[in-house]
Amino acid sequence: MRHAGFFLFALLLTAPFAGAAETLDFPTPLVAQVFATAYGFMAPRTLEAIPIPRLALWALRGLAVMDPALMPERQADQVVLRGADRELLRRPAPGPDDADGWGMVTAEFAAAGWGASATVRRAGPQGVIRGLFDELFNHLDPYSRYAAPGETEIDRQGRRADGGVGLILGQRGARVVIDAVQPDSPAAAAGLRPGETLLAIDRTPLGMADAVSTAALLAGPPATHVRLELRGHDGRRLRVDLLRGLVPPQSVFASPLDGLLVLRLTGFQRGTGQQFDAALKAAFARHVPPRGLVLDLRGNRGGLLQQAVAVVGGLLGSGLVAITAGRDPSANRVLQADAEARADDLPVVVLVDGRSASAAEITAAALADNRRAVVIGSATLGKGLIQTVTPLPDGGELFVTWSRVLAPLGWPIQDLGVLPQICTSLGADTLQQELETLAKGDRPLAAALARHRTARPPLPAAMVLEIRDACPAAIGTDLDLQGARFLIDHPDSYANALLPPQFLPAAP
Question: How many CB atoms lie within 10 A of CB 59?
Answer without folding.
Answer: 28
